[in-house]
C-alpha cells in the first residue's frame, strides 16, 4: 500500500500539474494564432511563449538552469497574461503560485484575448521596466516556492555515498512533506529558500530570537520500517557544533530500520527487529577486501561502475595490491569472475571487537553486532537506573522537551525533583544507511526524534555522475525513478 501511495503521489503532483498547465496554455496559444498542440511539448511550449512575448528564443536555455528556471517560469507566465490584457497584482500572484489552476480558468474567459507582444501593448499595460518585471516575478516566485517547499515537497541532493547503491551521490530528489505531514515553522524569521546559511557565504540565514511551538499537520502515512527518510540529524557535533533550532539542523537521509517500541539488534550484519530478520535492501553495500594481481586500472574500475567513493587503495600488505571496496553482493561476485582479481573477502574488521564510536558508549558493540536496544515510544514509561540512563540520557535531556532536567550521580531530576520513572513524550526512530559500512547513522549517534522527521524520499528527478566524462554526466536511467 505504501509503494502504491508513493507511485500515486508522483502522478498526483507531477503529471497532472504539467497537463493542467498545458491545458491552460493550449487555448491561449490558439487565441494568439499559434498551434494548440505546442502547449504539450516541453521546450516547444516555452519557445511559443517567448514568441508571444516578443522575447529572444535563446532565453529557453534558462529552463535548464536550476533556480533561474523558477524565476524564468514566474516571469513568463506573468508577462503572458499581461499580453492577454491582465495586469492586476492579485492575478499575477495567482498565476505564479497556482498556474495549473489559474491558466485553464483564465483561458476560458470570453474576455481573454491576445493583445500582442510586450512592446506592442498599449501604454497603460506595458511593463514599466524590465527591472520592475523581474522584481515582481522574483517576489511572487519566492513566495510560491516557499509555500510549496513547506507544504508539499522539497528538493534535496545526495552528497555522500551512505545510501549507495539505492541512492547515488549526485541524485537530485524530491522529498514528500505530505506523506508524514509537514511541520509548522519553528524559526519564522529566515531568508526564504535557505537552510542554515545564506548562499555562498558563512552568514546565518535566520534569526533565532523568535521560536514558535512546532506541530505536525495531518499526513497520509506514518514512518514505516524500510522507508527512506529525510530528517534533521540530532547530535550537536553533526551540526557544526552549533545549537541550531530543530528545523534548521543538518539534513540526513537514511532508511528507517526501527520504529517506536521495536527491539532492534544486529547479528553478523543482519538487522533483526522484534526477533525477525529485516529484509535487506536489494542494493545494500558492504565492505570487502579485494586483492588483485596488479593495480586495477581506471578503465576496469569504470567498466565495473566502481567510482572513487566506492573504494580505498590499501597498498601491498602481502605484495599484492589490496583494496577496501563498498559494493553489493552481486558486484562482489562479478569481481570474483575477473581475471585480474585474486580474492574478494568480506571485511570483518568492522566486527573485530568493540567500536568506541558506537552509541551508547557504555556498550561494547560494533557496526556488525549491535544491540539489543529498545526504541522509545511515546507514552511508554521506564525505570530510572544506570542501565536506562545509558541508553536514554540524550533522549530525556536533549530531545524530549524537558526544560529543567539534570542527571547527577545516576539520578534524574526534573524541575528540581528526583524522578524514579520517566514517560517518553514523543516517538523515536532508528535509521541506517544502505551502505552499511560507510554510513554514519543511528548506530553511532542514537535515536531520531519524531519532531526531527522532515519527509519521505519520493522520486529522483535528476542524477549527475561527478566522475563521468562530459557526455556521460547525466544518468538518464535514473530520471523519475521512484525511491523504495
> What's the pLDDT, averaged over the residues?
89
Weakly predicted, low-confidence segments: 1-7
- Helix proportion of residues, in percent? 25-40%
Helix segment count?
Answer: 11
N- and C-termini, Cα separation: 12 Å
Strand content: 15-25%
Subunit organisation of the chains? single chain
Structural class: alpha+beta
Give the overall form.
globular
The main β sheet shows up as: 8 strands, antiparallel
| Gyration radius over CA | 27 Å
Characterise the protein shown here.
It is a single chain. The protein has 484 residues and is of the alpha+beta class. 26% of the residues lie in helices and 21% in strands. Among the domains are: 2-151, no CATH class; 379-425, no CATH class. It has helices spanning 2-13, 15-31, 44-53, 68-83, 89-97, 99-107, 130-151, 298-303, 329-336, 386-399, 442-445; strands at 153-157, 171-176, 228-232, 251-258, 263-267, 270-273, 276-277, 286-292, 311-315, 322-327, 341-346, 370-374, 381-383, 405-408, 411-414, 417-419, 421-423, 428-432, 448-449, 453-463, 481-482. Strands 1, 2, 3, 4, 18, 19, 20 and 21 form an eight-stranded antiparallel β-sheet that branches. β15 and β16 form a beta hairpin. It is globular and about 80 Å long. The two termini are 12 Å apart. Mean pLDDT is 89; it is low at 1-7.
Characteristic key phrases:
11 helices, alpha+beta, 21 strands, 484 residues
Compact description:
Helix content is 26%, strand content 21%. The chain has 484 residues and is an alpha+beta fold.
